[in-house]
Give the backbone structure.
Amino acid sequence: CRVSSDGKPEKFQPPPKPVIIDKQKQREERRFLSPEFIPPRGRTDPFKYYIERKDMIQRRRVFNIPEFYVGHVLAVTTADPYASEKSSRFVGICIQRGGKGLGATFVLRNVIEDQGVEICYELYNPRIQAIEVLKLEKRLDDNLMYLRDALPEYSTFDVNMKPVSRLDDEEVPVNKLQVRMKPKPWSKRWERPKYNIKGIKFELPESKMKEAQKWSQPWLEFDMMREYDTSKLEDKIWREVSEGLKN
Amino acid sequence: RSVSHPHLPFILSLLALSFSPASVTGACRAIQKLTRVRVVDNSALGNTPYHRPPKCIHVYNKTGVGKVGDKILLAIKGEKKKALIVGHKMPGPTMTPRFDSNNVVLIEDNGNPTGTRIKTPIPYILRQRGEFSKVLAIARNFV
């Protein structure tokens, strides 16, 4: 047996325990609840939202709506009676997700033959036959409407793009791209703090940026009447939704 | 004469005088009298530069507002010409495309298109009315 430098027998040190990282548990912890499930603030009876959620879960059981955020590149195939082969496919970047409940919509934008096209799709419309996520990428903002005033290269996506392969890992990567804009005038004054846009590379002079700050409302983030805590609601709805989808 | 900025299109790209409007309103109603439009086919009338952009002077509709599929009267190069609206900036019903510029295809009185090719994408909704089959036949891309 081992002998230490003193000459006495050393106490047995057991080897360190191996740390088992259970990847399945990590995946379950990371849960995504689509934003249209969360009911808006108001005085409507929650029963209305409960019935809507039941219908949404029913639709999701038949048709898979993948998890996607603003900034993802999606390909949507819809049934169209006036199209050849009765179905049409559109590829674009999601610039906005709006609406709650069954009327939830998302807007896809693409530039085809130098012409910018945007289509507002309804998530739960039965005409939609397939939604594929081609590129997973979150952006710095929730609303990419400023892409209308940005150079067209930032909104062009190849129609025959292959889906970018991705492991079913943890986080969705955030693309910290700063977009360059066309010369002013823009459709909205994106430099103003009300839009809180971080994804634009403003090449405006300092004086203009300072003037835009005049419209800032720094008291808004401390306004207690505007607080809407959705954590408990989200937990409850998540449990409902995951149970409904398991069957 | 390639269109780079749909905001102030043909105006800035013309060789002669350049007019920059003092203010450009966003899309209010789709296409009505005096809206500047963009001709998307390859007809000579629509593509030769002129110091004034083509403007709508009448909409053949009960309301004076033209949407996709409506016929309008254009004033191009000092002449009157009928045209068909194939896309506008105003958002329409969901699942229909919204374009970044007001697109128009020149047409004769009997409905035949003046040009021979349309490169810009055309919405599928136009197939609903049978009178535009000749225009759709020369279109290349659909949305």
